[in-house]
Write a structure and sequence with these properties.
Length: 260
């Protein structure tokens, strides 16, 4: 399996660097300069680029990287992405530096959004964030809800490498939804500590006492406290249980978050 390193970019993006021997992949290179600097400092050859979606902060560096390195570009087939050589739709299995990586379709933030699943490790772009989730720029609440459910169904120990350091910014909303969630309060204190020390909160953990499943409101849309908070905030959520209610709670939370 490859090793994983972060290359910080812009204000709060993470470009993930995957390394095995002298070969490297990057995930979502929004900016080429910090990637090139790192590759040169570490004597690495870039052989592949994984792209989750078309937003500039995830693909802006591809042109410059490909002008310099003969890298394959794996990207959503349905989105406009510079230099794509391997168009993907989800369901494929890739060979990434000798490791089998599954491609998951996770529409919601954008319609062609992909996530890349290696053993125990998920690169999810702007789908799931620490204590939050991506905005619905293109997809519907039903699509995003299904995409998040797909992620939540992964093994608890899965490490989630999302593309932004948003956890601390997301926690006040999560605490507003669930002020009595002890795990969430504990996580909030731990995250404040980490960030004050200049440390990353990503990768995220799915399971565990203060993991996403215990503290991220968008993964908790069937919890009574979350349903109650969504109901109190908006009258659009049905009071009956049923297959649609999780999605409606999700939609209510996402709308609430947008104006928070
Ligand atoms: Zn985005
Ligand atoms: Fe982004």
């Amino acid at each position: 399996m490859f090793e994983i390193f972060s290359i910080p970019a812009f204000k709060d993006n993470y470009i993930w660097l995957l390394v095995r021997g002298t070969q490297a992949f990057v995930v979502d290179p929004g900016d080429a300069a910090p990637v090139i600097a790192r590759l040169e400092a570490d004597g690495l050859d870039l052989v592949g680029i994984l792209v989750t979606h078309h937003h500039a902060d995830h693909q802006g560096g591809i042109g410059e990287l490909c002008a310099r390195y003969p890298a394959e570009v794996y990207a959503p087939a349905s989105e406009s992405i510079t230099g794509t050589t391997r168009p993907l739709r989800g369901g494929e299995v890739l060979d990434v530096l000798g490791t089998a990586v599954q491609v998951l379709a996770v529409p919601g933030h954008t319609l062609g959004h992909l996530a890349y699943l290696a053993p125990g490790v998920l690169f999810c772009g702007d789908t799931l964030f620490g204590a939050g989730c991506g905005r619905l720029f293109e997809g519907t609440p039903a699509q995003m809800s299904a995409s998040l459910a797909q992620i939540a169904a992964l093994p608890d120990e899965t490490l989630i490498y999302c593309a932004h350091e948003y956890t601390e910014m997301n926690l006040p909303f999560a605490l507003t939804v669930e002020p009595d969630n002890a795990a969430l309060r504990q996580r909030s204190a731990a995250v404040a500590h980490l960030r004050r020390a200049g440390l990353a909160t990503v990768p995220l953990t799915l399971g565990g006492e203060t993991g996403e499943k215990a503290t991220n409101p968008f993964l908790r849309c069937t919890q009574p406290a979350v349903i109650a908070a969504a109901l109190a905030h908006t009258a659009t959520v049905e009071k009956t249980a049923g297959p649609r209610s999780g999605i409606e709670v999700f939609a209510a939370l996402r709308g609430w978050r947008n104006n928070f």
